[in-house]
Amino acid sequence: MALAGKVVFYARAFREQDVDGKRLVIAATGDATINETVMRRCRALGVWVNVVDDPSRCDFHIPAVVERGKVQVAISTGGASPALSRMLKEQLGGHLEPSLGAYVELVEQARGRIKQLMSDRGYEERRMANEAVLAAGARERLAAGDEQGARRLIDEVVEEIRVQKVEG
User: Fold this and answer.
1) What is the pLDDT of residues 110-160, one digit of tens each?
2) Which residues contact 143 (CB under 8 A, 6 or more apart)?
3) pTM for the full model?
C-alpha cells in the first residue's frame, strides 16, 4: 500500500505527534507496550484506534469483505477471530459468481430506465417491476458468459413495462 501511495509509511519509532490531526489509526507494531501508548494518545485526542489483536482496545473492527463490483458483503466477528472472518469470506466468496458485479451494473441500468418509465407510479409498482428484472434469468445467463443474452432478457422486461404503460 505504501508503494502504491495509499498510505504513508515511516520506518522509525512511534512519536506521539504521529496521530495529531488524524481521524483513524491502526496500531500494529507487534509490541504491546507501544500499541498501548498509541491507543492512549489516540483516545486522548478523540482519534479512533484499532489495536491489532486486542479487540478490547479497539474503537472499530475491520471486516473481511467479499467484493463483486458494487456488491460488497462484510463479515466480522467483532474482533474475536479475524481468522474466522477470513475463512467465512473465502467460503462465501466461492458462492458469489465473479460476474455478479457486471450483473449489478445491468440491473442498475434497468432500474434507472424503470424509474423514468414509471415516474408517475408508486413505490410498490416500481418495486415489482425491478423484481421482474431480477426474476428474468439474466444473472444465470451472465454467469454462463452470455452477456448479450442477459442484456436481452432485461431489455425484454423493460420493454414489456414500457408497452404496458403505453397501453394502460
Assistant:
1) 999 999 999 999 999 999 999 999 999 999 999 999 999 999 999 999 999
2) 97, 99, 103
3) 0.74
Task: Find cell 519509532 and name the residue.
Answer: 13
In degrees and rounded to multiples of 5, residue 71 shows phi and psi of -85, 120
The domain made up of 64-93 has a fold known as: Double Stranded RNA Binding Domain (3.30.160)
pLDDT reported for residue 168 = 65
Q: Quote the CA–CA distance of 48 and 52 in Å, as a whole number.
A: 13
Domain assignments of the chain as residue spans, ordered by start: 16-57, 64-93, 100-167
